[in-house]
Amino acid sequence: MLRAMLGEAWQAMGANRMRSVLTMLGMVIGVGSVVLMMAIGQGAQYAVAQTISSMGSNLYILISGSTSAGGLRSGGGGGPTLTVADAEAIAELDGVSNVAPVQQGTQQLVYGANNWSATVVGTTPPYLDARAWTIVSGYPFGDSDVRAATRVALIGQTAVDNLFGSDDPLGKTIRIRQSPFVIVGVLGKKGQNLDGRDQDDTVIIPLTTAQRKVFGNPFPGSVRLIMVQATSAEAMPAVEKSMTALLRQRHRIREGQDNDFYLRNLAAAADSAAETTRVMSLLLGAIASVSLLVGGIGIMNIMLVSVTERTREIGIRMAIGARQQDILAQFLLEALMISVAGCLIGLFLGIGGALLTNALTDMVIVISGASILVAFGVAAGVGIFFGYYPAHRAAALDPIEALRHQ
Amino acid sequence: MAEAVIRVVGLGKSYETAAGLFPALRDVDLCIEAGEFVAIMGPSGSGKSTFMNLLGCLDTPSSGDYFLVGRKVAQLRKDELARLRNRSIGFVFQGFNLLPRMTLADNVALPLVYAGIEREQRRQRARHELARVGLGDYADALPSRISGGQQQRVAIARALINSPQLILADEPTGNLDSHTSEEIMALFTALNREGISIVLVTHEPDIAAYAARQVRFRDGRLVSDLPTPTQVLAAC
Q1: What residue stretches are annotated with the ABC transporter domain (chain B) (predicted)?
Q2: A319 and B97: CB-CB below 8 Å?
Q3: Which residues of A371-381 are buried (b: 16+ CB within 10 A; e: fewer)?
């Protein structure tokens, strides 16, 4: 019975080929755009997630306060309010996994005849974990290097490319502000951060060496930044509270007085970036769904026309023994066949379009099984939903009236 | 004696119209035995079409009772009526009413689809019925490729395929020339000899003459029910 009906539905589709194809086109475009838009949206989410995890997760940045000299106020980090001792105290707090004082700035690097300007970061070993840096060759420097202010450096990929070209930088000596530094490790590639800055254009050296040899420091023991990583996202509010209280106490700030430092939450920035892309991909999906809806209405339209055109046929079928449910099933099956066929072609085109986008642009494209399944399910649902009304109209026809219809 | 194929008692049908309730059929009593060949005659508007729709289980009466082979069908649900149309009644229409996109064999086999018969058996039985009406070689042709008389034969084959007790023919020769009409009536006569009851609506006396019994309607009432005179003479 089902096979006979499938055959008949196929025949009915073939009987008016142009119309079936045009009706299908609505579904093709709808499903195709849903698949493509979801691929682009999910790709953007993936790209942002990658960037966020490359920055390091659950991070706070403490910036020392501004100074004011003769009415001239420096920006944040101008004052010597944060110290290495502050960092050591924060490291003792509950929920804190890594703390690294940071002194950084842009410096000229020189290797042989090459020179290159890059961000030089003076810090302590926990920095690598906090910022999720990996070492692809060599080894990181340790606490003893910080204590002894040795001249060792870890170098990022962009700096390597520009200074060494294809040479192996390990064990080579570069000069920063006339001081020679031996490269002991090469950092893994990270790409851009959320601001679009190249994170790989970096050299990391011990904090003490940086302060003494590179930046100089009029206030011994002070640092401009302290990077603090919480053990988890849940621990962050508690860490923020206890850290602020600790610093206010250590800096002897009275009730009602402003902090002499700034606190930046990198997680909040990351969250907002992730939220933006999530909303964007939702929006893309929603717009694409509208075309799916329009495709469904197209199917309903054509099925209604088909029912009217075939009223006499329906009457004949009823006279020779078709029950209402047989007529209902027949027209529902036709609608379903059109929508599923359109869906398959749409899937094909959508995936093709996504792969093409991937090949022609540097956009990240993620085609997930879930999005394909959703598109397919929605298409089948649309077929049944929009096919039901015309099919019901056909089944409810009065056989005598239908037989009389010309 | 075998059960009457059709027995109607006090059958009536009224329609709602703008001018009020219109009685299309009033208080009809009729009994048709198995193997009878009955012609129903009457001018248009006489109620014969309404009566045929009721006999064909396409409609339900407003009053009275209808027994099809002893089964009371006046109060059946739509699905049960569909089942009766499928198994117990074969329809032949004036306009043939074949489905134009299907081959003749598929047209003939269509009632079997709704009876839930397997594909192989459907094909076999359809070919057999087509052969029975003399169109065995046209199984895979489309209806548009054959003549009106041949189309009506196909329609008769379709009516026969579920071995019904009753064939209802609504002006089956109305669209055919007189020569083809004679052939179709000869086919009905042959089927009747095989024991199938036939009820035929017509307004042509020479077509009605093929039937052994003629029933006349006028203004929604059954006004006469007589044996066909020529056939009475022939029997003498």
Answers
A1: 6-235
A2: yes
A3: bbeebbebbee
pLDDT of the residue at A19: 87
The domain locations on chain A are 2-51+272-404, 82-259
Starting at the earlier edge strand, list the strands of the sheet with B197-201: B89-92, B166-170, B197-201, B37-41, B213-218, B221-227
Of the candidates B97, B101, B114, which has its C-beta nearest A321's C-beta?
A: B114
* Tokens at B224, concatenated: 């006469």
CA distance B79 to chain A (A): 6
Q: State residue A68's pLDDT score.
A: 60
Stated length of chain A: 406
**A320 contacts in chain B (CB < 8 Å):** 85-86, 91, 110-111, 114, 158
CB-CB neighbors (< 8 A) of A11 in chain B: 101-102
**Residue A224 and residue A86 in contact, taking contact as beta carbons nearer than 8 Å:** no
| Contact flag A321-B59 (C-beta cutoff 8 Å) | no
Stretches where chain B sits below pLDDT 50 are 1
Write B176-179 long-range contacts (CB < 8 A, 24+): B176/B148, B176/B149, B176/B152
pLDDT at A226: 92
Q: Which residues of chain B have a CB within 8 Å of the CB of A324?
A: 78-79, 82
Contact B114 A324 (CB under 8 A): no
CATH architecture of B35-61+84-235: 3-Layer(aba) Sandwich (3.40)
Burial of A280 (0-12, 13-18, 19+ CB in 10 A): middle
User: Which parts of chain A sit beneath pLDDT 70?
Assistant: 1, 67-78, 194, 218
Q: DSSP per residue over A3-44, as a string?
A: HHHHHHHHHHHHHTHHHHHHHHHHHHHHHHHHHHHHHHHHHH
What letter represents residue B85's amino acid? Answer: R
The pLDDT, as a whole number, for residue A221 is: 80
For residues A44 and A22, give the distance between their C-alpha atoms in angstroms, rounded to a whole number: 33
Residue A397, CA distances (Å) to A387, B60, B82, B91, B100 in order: 16, 15, 13, 19, 20
Query: Which residues does chain B have within 8 Å of residue A318's beta carbon, measured at their own beta carbons?
Result: 58, 82, 85
Suggest the residue from B83, B110, B121, B166 to mutate for an interface test with chain A (most A CBs closer than 10 A). Answer: B110
- A317 touches B at CB < 8 Å: yes
Structure tokens at A81: 């309010």
The pLDDT value given to residue B2: 63
- Residue holding tokens 């018969």? B117
- In this complex, do B82 and A318 lie within 8 Å of one another by their Cβ atoms? yes
- Which candidate from B58, B83, B86 shows the least CB-CB separation from A399? B58
**B87 in contact with A, Cβ within 8 Å:** yes
Looking at residue A122, what is its pLDDT? 92
